[in-house]
Amino acid sequence: MLCPHCQAAGQRSVVDIVRCTQGKDPKRTFWDEDGVEHHHNPNVSVTEYRCSNGHTFAERSSWECQCGYKVCEAEIVTTPAAIEQMADEVRRVRRKPGLSPEQEAERESKKKRAKR
Hints:
Layout: H1 4-9, E1 15-22, E2 28-31, E3 37-40, E4 44-51, E5 56-62, E6 75-77, H2 80-94, H3 101-115
Antiparallel strand pairs: 1-4, 2-3, 4-5, 5-6
């Protein structure tokens, strides 16, 4: 992974993952009529990065099966607003039906406290 900001400026940098958010839908593994194994994953993941020069960017991607099935094309965004919007889209998908964002945050907080 190369930082798109640094590439545009002709700089070099080291890139670290800051956060990865993924959907929680179950994956489907099956074998077709020819016995070929397929992995259909309906989840989208958003990985947020920061480079050693302080730039941030994010990538939205999905698993691609050998048959071509995938949920979305890979996309990289570089503005803070676009990064947050991309992550929010995945968080919304992960929410349980009927829970408000505040209720979902409280539920996640309780799960983290219970793990301690």
